Amino acid sequence: MSKVRASRGGTVLCAIEVAREEISAYGVFDVEPVPDGDYTDDPNVLKVRGMVEKPKAETAPSRYAAAGRYVLDRAIFDALRRIDRGAGGEVQLTDAIALLIAEGHPVHVVVHQGSRHDLGNPGGYLKAAVDFALDRDDYGPDLRRWLVARLGLTEQ
């Protein structure tokens, strides 16, 4: 993301590709290929035309959802001061980013291709804790044996 920021300027956001049936749980990007310069041939770097908060699957502009990672241009602070309060009476970062887009500031996404954990819900948090614990030398072997026994599996 920092390399895209250094090359393209503006704001750079991280996106993940989400299954169509899960898209309504996310803020979704309306994107297009980078029109010129660096990254025109990189399918994981896209120019943002807009954002839609939790759209229905049939109206979602893409399957690229906000992953909560940002490299923000300093112009975001002025934009945050100029927007109206949104949902819950709070100042919404997505509204400020939308204002930057509307005013012609460059905003791009980098599509993350690795693994990730959704810590925004208890089930995702538990999966992350187990995943990270299994990778540790001090917890992993005992946890793996316990899980195998608990689930009635045979260890391989």
Automatic annotation (TrEMBL):
Gene3D superfamilies: Spore Coat Polysaccharide Biosynthesis Protein SpsA, Chain A. GO terms for biological process: UDP-alpha-D-glucose metabolic process. It holds the Pfam family NTP_transferase. Residues 10-131 form the Nucleotidyl transferase domain. InterPro entries: GalU_uridylyltTrfase_bac/arc, NTP_transferase_dom, Nucleotide-diphossugar_trans. One of its GO terms (molecular function) is UTP:glucose-1-phosphate uridylyltransferase activity. It catalyses: alpha-D-glucose 1-phosphate + UTP + H(+) = UDP-alpha-D-glucose + diphosphate. Keywords: Nucleotidyltransferase, Transferase. It is an enzyme of class 2 (transferase). Its EC number is 2.7.7.9. Belongs to the UDPGP type 2 family. This is UTP--glucose-1-phosphate uridylyltransferase.
